[in-house]
Amino acid sequence: MKHPHKQPKILIINGPNLNLLGRRPSQHYGTLNLTELESLIQREAEALNLEAVCRQSNHEGEILNWLHASLDDDTAGLIINAGAYTHTSLALADALEVVNYPVIEVHLSNIHAREAIRHHSMIAPKALGQISGLGPQGYILALKALAERLSP
Question: Are 56 and 14 a contacting pair, CB within 8 Å?
């Protein structure tokens, strides 16, 4: 059941290897670690009167379970950086077909300026939009877009 008096809940999912932020090549992923990125997201969400729920997993099934659970837990929007699953996971694409809230795909690096396999996204056809190559700012822009879309 939706609760109109509550802040809209935004699920932020980071996929495989994003727990290694701060150790991965900074030219692609920047210098923030995952904890710092999540703190940045939380501060911006609070400023936008959103509730941000940040999750990270290296396991495709766990990400799918979070998406399935979000269908019944008042989730109002999703920001997803599925990492390598972006380019390979039909299961993730299938799960996103069922969600009934806006989805924004985010990537820290410009996936279109990298290896050819990274140019195709299984998520993009299910997403409201894609933000790629703007580093942590991509998450902030995605939050702002969702806040605007969800405002009465």
Answer: yes
Question: In the numeric block, which tokens belong to residue 3?
Answer: 């609760």
Q: Closest Cα to residue 82, out of 104, 99, 101?
A: 104
Q: Please, what sign has the CA dihedral across residues 74, 78, 81, 85?
A: positive
Chain centre to alpha carbon of residue 97? 16
**Lookup: tokens for 105:** 């795909």
Radius of gyration of the chain (CA): 14
pLDDT in tens, 21-35: 888 777 777 778 999
Nearest Cα to Cα of residue 84 among 92, 74, 76: 92
> Which residues belong to the active site?
29, 107
Alpha helices in the chain (DSSP H): 26-29, 34-47, 60-70, 85-88, 90-98, 137-150
51 in helix, strand or coil? Answer: strand
Does this model's pTM top 0.70? Answer: yes
* pLDDT tens for each residue of 53-67: 999 999 999 999 999
Beta bridge partners, 104, equal 79, 129
- In angstroms, the CA 47 to CA 111 distance is 29
Q: Residue 83 carries which DSSP code?
A: T
